[in-house]
Amino acid sequence: MSVIRNPYFIVCCLLFWANQFLERILGIFIPFVHEYLDDLLAMPVVLGISLQVFRWISPLKDGFIFTKTQILVGVAYFAFLFEFLLPMFSPVYTRDFWDVVCYGVGAVFFHRQINTSPKDI
């Protein structure tokens, strides 16, 4: 199945968009949602978009999936960039261990629900 047709991917994208709309357009900030929803959805959205691009260019097409190592590298990259490096240079970013946990949970969700090939379904 194409990633962009996967209902789990679509729901993650819609939730991410809805949260951004509430915060940036309407100025509504729901405390727990404001702090962690984007981090929870980051891996399914970013890895899902990346997976779709790889499927477009790979000879395996819909049979292409990311390995657990590749997903782990994605989580490590986000954790390093957003929880270590950027907070050193900008007050906009803050270090939060729970953000890393959210990246991990989102990555597990991505691996189980979005990172599937037709033979897995």
Automatic annotation (TrEMBL):
Q: Mind telling me which residue stretches traverse the membrane in this protein?
A: 7-34, 40-57, 69-89
UniProt keywords, alphabetically = Membrane, Transmembrane, Transmembrane helix
Origin superkingdom: Bacteria
Q: What is this protein called?
A: Magnesium citrate secondary transporter
